[in-house]
């Protein structure tokens, strides 16, 4: 696959319906079950109506990969997604600390970190979101817009931004 | 047992005892879950002394149940039930909430609450760790503040007790507001904002048990199904059908606030004195100016019919709620003479925040409005309020009085039926004729006088859930809107709104088999399974008590108002013909297996193995 086909998943939180179809298809694809708490994309709802699909954005400098003490994380050459080596990972959580958005988490029953692998280049969550006409998640070519660390934010930070946009300035301190 | 977590929590709020219980395969196969299982549990545990059980006393049982299709069928819901403080029967009252998912992922199909707590509490569930926690600091808080505290505390609890790298996602919650705490029979069990189990009045039951909320995080997968590949294939077809829908996706039911009045002439206007209006100011296009989210929905829903509305400027600034949906539009709009979208959103946000049901509260507000119009209720009776049609601040003030049980609000908090009896007594005039209710339940905002809307003559009189417009009696028994079909949705437990389409309805039998492994044909369902459930529900409704009892001959009827002719619009002059009600009622009794007095027949009950129900019905038959 050529460099031009690398993607990342952009997100428009104001369009997220909160239907959690992304969690359903992701966990079905990765876990073979409907399992929201083991989905690579997790929808946070710290305030109703402000639904935040939270998933890896593939930072250009991959702080999580750099931080991993056991080299369990690597960058896929094909997709540029972060790949977790389940055998090597010790679930120490250093990648979570290194992530500006605290996006990785430990699998609820297994001993490894859970990080979006972009489904090998065709993310199921994006397909599900488009199928329903919501378009909260959308694939973007990395050559067009690199993400840097801009979208790697915690659900709290994102909620604060989105809530002002949707509900107004007076909701700034709502959390 | 496929499709089920297999365990239920039983929480005794009097003693604090928590245990896990199971139901046999046979019981689950016969009663499925949700509403069906609620009816079975209530019959088994309380059926023998039903007439004596006060719904707001500790003996009542509060149920929060999922079903085997919850999380699989598009649009997950939770079914809340118990003895209803509105009808004294049983209502399967469902609401969309991820609590249904968290419960199942924690390993439970539902919760059975018995007894009552001395002090305010909430139940906290993290997988198999279940704890009753103090809620004194949340008691008295309105809905938005309550949820904010619950989510914050829930996440803190997860983070401190279950330390693991990574952020904990918010736990889900259902809860009550001030109206529930004050045991108003109009009180909802709430989720998120603007999500409510309204019919039944189970917010008051939670309040009577001093149960402020249930908060849960389940970290496992949904329960395994018989055939996952087949399940997801069927679900995919159901999704595709719903993705193709236009109106419900684009506008939700909020397109109807204008449409049902102007086109169908079946919308409550000024306490149903009319059912027609042509107020274009109330068009959905005028609501859209407040929308900040075009689609809002819940776990697994393809339709996402909700829309988040916010008032960002003007005197009503700050109100946030769902669009509103048609019921709230109608009942907190035209039914109060209000035709300004912002005022409707403001009132809807207010009832949400107080934990009141928009339908039941709008019904009783309209009733009070008419009594004021007729001079039966005066300014003095209303603590100085001039309750003029269209005065949003006056109706808002009265709403607060209802939630707080202040002044006349204390009477209105009992709901239209009971308030009508009380006011008739106080004023010495019959005001029951202005109450638009069925079996103690304010009727949903779909009238029948014009004969243009979806309910028919049998719908409200014969429903085992009274005025509930989401559970109407319909002939033939396998009609697309039949109550027997609703029982499948409410027992499944999932959202009716994704099953308006006939093809989607047909797929449900396949889905039920793919999930549970049980082959239940439409013949089985309409002839046996759903019949068993509806007969027990009917039996409990007829047993009723202690404060109200229903006599089919007089109570299986539409409200007196609907026998009056419509005064305006294209259907001017149309009224319900009493003969048509009688005919429809007789046909329905006959079809479903009830005798000429509306009591389930002995041979029908025995055919279904309900000998114990038959025995209780024998007492009623003798007295009729």
Q: What is the element layout, followed by pairings?
A:
The complex is a heterodimer of chains A (175) and B (624).
Chain A: E1 7-11, H1 21-31, E2 42-47, E3 50-54, H2 63-67, E4 73-75, E5 82-84, H3 94-98, E6 105-106, E7 113-114, H4 124-131, E8 137-141, H5 155-167
Antiparallel strand pairs in A: 1-8, 2-3, 4-5, 6-7
Chain B: E1 7-12, E2 18-21, H1 25-31, H2 34-46, E3 62-65, E4 78-81, E5 93-95, H3 99-106, E6 108-114, E7 121-126, E8 129-134, H4 143-161, E9 172-175, H5 178-181, E10 189-191, E11 195-197, H6 202-208, E12 211-217, H7 228-243, H8 247-251, H9 256-264, H10 284-288, E13 291-296, E14 306-310, E15 320-322, H11 326-331, H12 341-354, H13 358-373, H14 392-404, H15 409-412, H16 416-427, E16 437-438, E17 441-442, H17 459-462, H18 483-492, H19 502-516, H20 522-543, H21 552-555, H22 578-592, H23 602-607, H24 611-623
Parallel strand pairs in B: 1-6, 7-12
Antiparallel strand pairs in B: 1-2, 3-4, 3-6, 4-5, 7-8, 9-10, 9-12, 10-11, 13-14, 14-15, 16-17
Helix pairs in contact in B: 1-2, 2-18, 2-20, 7-19, 12-14, 18-20, 20-24
Please provide a brief summary of the model.
The complex is a heterodimer of chains A (about 180) and B (about 625). Chain A is an alpha+beta fold and about 180 residues long.
How would you describe the overall organization of this protein?
The complex is a heterodimer of chains A (175) and B (624). By secondary structure, chain A is α+β, with helices and mostly antiparallel strands. Chain A has helices at 21-31, 63-67, 94-98, 124-131, 155-167; strands at residues 7-11, 42-47, 50-54, 73-75, 82-84, 105-106, 113-114, 137-141. In chain A, the strands form four sheets. In chain A, strands 1-8 form a two-stranded antiparallel sheet. In chain A, a hairpin with a 6-residue loop joins strand 4 and strand 5 (82-84). In chain A, helix 1 runs antiparallel to helix 4 (124-131). Chain B is α+β, with helices and mostly antiparallel strands and 624 residues long. In chain B, the strands form four sheets. Chain B has a six-stranded mixed sheet. Chain B has a six-stranded mixed sheet with strand order 8-7-12-9-10-11, with helices on both faces. The mean pLDDT of chain B is 98. Chains A and B meet through helix 1, strand 2, helix 3, strand 6 and strand 7 of A and helix 4, helix 7 and strand 13 of B.
